[in-house]
């Protein structure tokens, strides 16, 4: 992979609209967008207009028979905002898909977690599988012990770096940088919950308790696609503090790493990319034998 400075860095301003879909980058092969929170990627229901496909193409663009087909090479949950890569043709989709499959892409998320995290850096290695409970058809479960009941668990790995502590509505919270090494369904939400710090506003993984915040605070902030001809480094603006519904209820605590400008965020990503943990309060979470 080329050095960061040789990547194409795309950065655009944030459009202040509840349902705006901002195009961050577009060429003959790809559209890369900033997806709002609480929006579906697509839907088979032609009456459902709250979808990415409806905003950038047509309601059926995710179907192979569409006159304007699009190919989603990655997914974001309904509640998650941020960078989403969409291919315009099958060849481009296969090319990007190989990068994701071989774990050559790099993805970085910002999140706000409930509570003050007791470490600075962590590797979370809990496998993730489906929750077999009848009432939890869309939930996933981490394998944190030999008594886990998750179905068909697959290995999963997330890195977590603490950026800043503070409070939201007088309750302790922590702003973190998350780097998923694998890409399991709900992986970041499950892993954060597994280490005792659910994502602020995550209704599903707090058993429908955390419903007061206006959104779930998880945002895909940066995506690196190391294409040979034109490597791409796509970044969105910092998503939370520009939102007055959050910033008006926030009180800062201790800062660990700057992250609110594009340059500072890249520096924080460099920290989480490092292998060494000398001088950092580090923890590793994995299934103990």
From TrEMBL:
GO biological process, one term: enzyme-directed rRNA pseudouridine synthesis
GO molecular function: pseudouridine synthase activity; RNA binding
Matches recorded under Pfam families: PseudoU_synth_2 (PF00849)
Boundaries of every Pseudouridine synthase RsuA/RluA-like domain copy: 29-194
InterPro entries: PsdUridine_synth_cat_dom_sf (IPR020103), PsdUridine_synth_RsuA/RluA (IPR006145), RluA_PseudoU_synthase (IPR050188)
Superkingdom assignment: Eukaryota
Family to which the UniProt record says this protein belongs: Belongs to the pseudouridine synthase RluA family.
Protein name: RNA pseudouridylate synthase domain-containing protein 1-like
């Amino acid at each position: 992979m080329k050095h960061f400075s040789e990547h194409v860095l795309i950065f655009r301003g944030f459009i202040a609209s509840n349902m705006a879909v901002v195009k961050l980058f577009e060429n003959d092969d790809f559209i890369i967008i900033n997806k709002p929170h609480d929006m579906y990627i697509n839907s088979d229901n032609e009456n459902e207009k709250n979808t990415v496909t409806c905003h950038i193409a047509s309601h059926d663009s995710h179907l192979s028979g569409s006159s304007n087909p699009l190919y989603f090479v990655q997914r974001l949950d309904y509640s998650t905002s941020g960078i989403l890569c969409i291919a315009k043709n099958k060849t481009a989709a296969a090319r990007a898909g190989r990068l994701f499959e071989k774990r050559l892409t790099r993805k970085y998320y910002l999140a706000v977690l409930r509570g003050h995290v007791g470490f600075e850096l962590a590797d979370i290695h809990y496998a993730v599988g489906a929750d077999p409970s009848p009432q939890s058809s869309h939930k996933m479960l981490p394998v944190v012990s030999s008594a886990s009941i998750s179905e068909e668990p697959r290995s999963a790995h997330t890195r977590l770096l603490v950026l800043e502590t503070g409070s939201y509505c007088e309750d302790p919270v922590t702003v973190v940088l998350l780097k998923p090494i694998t890409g399991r369904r709900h992986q970041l939400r499950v892993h954060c919950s597994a280490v005792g710090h659910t994502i602020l506003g995550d209704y599903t993984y707090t058993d429908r308790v955390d419903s007061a915040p206006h959104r779930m605070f998880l945002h895909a902030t940066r995506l690196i696609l190391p294409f040979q001809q034109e490597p791409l480094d796509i970044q969105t603006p910092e998503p939370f503090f520009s939102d007055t519904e959050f910033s008006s209820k926030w009180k800062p605590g201790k800062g660990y790493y700057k992250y609110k400008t594009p340059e500072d965020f890249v520096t924080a990503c460099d920290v989480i990319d490092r292998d060494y943990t000398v001088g950092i309060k580090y923890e590793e979470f994995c299934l103990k034998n």
